[in-house]
Specification:
The chain has helices at residues 31-40, 54-63, 80-90, 105-115, 127-157, 168-189, 191-194, 197-210, 217-233, 237-249, 259-262, 271-278, 280-288, 295-302, 324-340, 350-359, 367-376, 424-437; strands at 22-27, 46-51, 68-72, 95-100, 119-122, 389-391, 407-408, 414-416, 444-446. It is α/β, with parallel strands linked by helices. It folds into 3 domains: 22-149, Response regulator (Rossmann fold); 173-379, Orthogonal Bundle (Hypothetical protein af1432), CATH 1.10.3210; 389-446, Molybdopterin biosynthesis moea protein, domain 2 (Alpha-Beta Complex), CATH 3.90.105.
Length: 447
């Protein structure tokens, strides 16, 4: 939640919206404020409605499909907190933004729970800050709507997900069965799929990309990186294609893992949980076994967690026994995980990830493959941090440091956005707010 002012770039903020308009309702008892908001938000992306009080706002909301509401805090009869509380109950998916004066800070914080306010801005607002806030809320709303649509599709296809047992072993069995059952349905539903390898691969990839903890983006990057490395080392199109597909499907076995493994960076897992995580390669191998044309792909995935020195799980293979594709996949996977924050809590820059892998060459990774990374990472389509990320205490922050992630308080209220560069003023206000909140907050900066 936006609780304090921040300095934003003067470049015009661009919205990445779909072709459809979002409906924005502005509520304020001052006509001049409504005119200013309507003028500021004038855009083909928005359809603007205005109301002079809470009652009028509720009436408009009942007739129109409102996506975003911007409401003043101080209004006669029904203040902004009460109005947004009614909206939260009747229209829970509507984004709610509160405009409030600095003197209303305590009442605003008290109103957060009742109104379930998405964020709030101080009056008088900064135009660039307000536009950026609405833009971020719009993008988040679109993503949430799409996520709900995908979740609904998943629930229709397999209601058994809701009845999964909390037992880890039972979850592994049931989710593995889900993969096999889904594969069986895909094969029996259409005879074309039985003879179409691309359709089968797409089906497996869809299972990964529809999972809210995994998504398909990292799989695509791992796959592309595997392909680029394989082209440097092999001449066989079939072998290169198998390694590329192994990168695309390497997370398939993760569908059988429990929430604790999904929510914990890999290098921070306990020994027992790390063994379970590494067993995901066996789950993927079992799921891919019925697809005979994918036998070599399944084998690459099966040995992806073997360690180059021969001390890995589960088979303790020597370096020569580990398939080349598995060694390539191991390097590509952990490079992507290191830069995306799945290997450690803090993300590494591209150079930082290469240095991390280089330090573990000969022990965990094949040094020949690690040495190829600088030659191929520039041609893959991926975004990485310019510098390494680290968690820092507020007492260690100095002006000039830049945030690499949003700063959220204990109620998930946005205090400062990603990319903000600290100055003495914003640092003092953040420190004051966190002192009042009296709860620990993780702050990520670029170093």
């Amino acid at each position: 939640m936006t609780a304090i002012s921040s300095h934003f770039s003067s470049e015009k903020t661009e919205l990445k919206l779909s072709n459809s308009q979002l409906c924005v309702l502005c509520v304020d008892d001052e006509v001049s404020v409504l005119k200013a908001l309507k003028r500021l938000l004038r855009s083909p992306h928005y359809r603007i409605f205005t109301a002079c009080n809470g009652h009028e706002g509720l009436e408009i909301a009942s007739k129109e499909s409102i996506d975003i509401i911007i409401s003043d805090m101080r209004m006669p009869e029904m203040d902004g907190a009460e109005f947004l509380s009614h909206i939260a109950k009747a229209y829970p998916y509507t984004v709610r933004i509160l405009l409030t004066g600095y003197s209303d800070l305590s009442s605003t914080i008290a109103a957060v729970n009742s109104g379930k306010i998405s964020c709030y801005l101080q009056k008088p607002w900064n135009n660039e800050e307000l536009l950026l806030t609405v833009s971020q809320c719009s993008e988040k709303l679109i993503l949430e709507n799409e996520n709900r649509r995908l979740v609904s599709e998943i629930e229709k296809k397999n209601r058994s997900l809701a009845s999964l047992n909390n037992s880890l072993e039972e979850k592994v069995k049931q989710r593995t069965l889900q993969i096999r059952t889904t594969l069986g349905k895909l094969k029996s539903a259409n005879s074309v799929i039985k003879n179409n390898l691309n359709a089968t691969i797409r089906s497996f990839y869809n299972l990964i990309s529809l999972n809210p903890y995994l998504g398909g983006k990292s799989s695509l990057i791992i796959s592309e990186l595997c392909s680029q490395i394989a082209h440097k080392m092999l001449d066989s199109p079939k072998a290169i294609k198998d390694i590329q597909l192994a990168g695309l499907l390497c997370e398939l076995g993760m569908l059988s893992m429990n929430d604790e493994i999904w929510n914990t960076p890999i290098e921070e897992l306990s020994i027992d949980l790390k063994k379970i995580y590494q067993s995901s390669s066996q789950q993927a191998y079992l799921a891919l076994s019925p697809a005979t044309p994918l036998k070599d792909v399944a084998t690459i995935i099966l040995y992806q967690h073997e360690v180059f020195s021969g001390e890995g799980c589960p088979n303790h293979l020597s370096a020569d026994e580990i398939p080349l594709g598995s060694r390539i996949l191991s390097v590509a996977r952990d490079y992507v995980y290191a830069t995306s924050g799945r290997l450690h809590t803090a993300r590494l820059s591209s150079q930082g990830a290469i240095e991390y892998l280089t330090q573990r060459a000969n022990q965990q990774y094949d040094p020949q493959i690690v040495n190829l990374l600088p030659q191929v990472i520039d041609v893959i389509n991926h975004n990485t941090l310019a510098k390494n990320e680290r968690i820092i205490a507020i007492s260690d922050i100095t002006p000039g440091m830049s945030l690499s992630r949003d700063v959220l308080n204990s109620n998930n209220i946005l205090l400062l956005p990603e990319g903000h560069t600290f100055n003495a003023d914003s640092l003092m206000r953040l420190n004051k707010f966190l002192t009042a909140d009296n709860n620990p907050v993780e702050i990520f900066v670029l170093t």
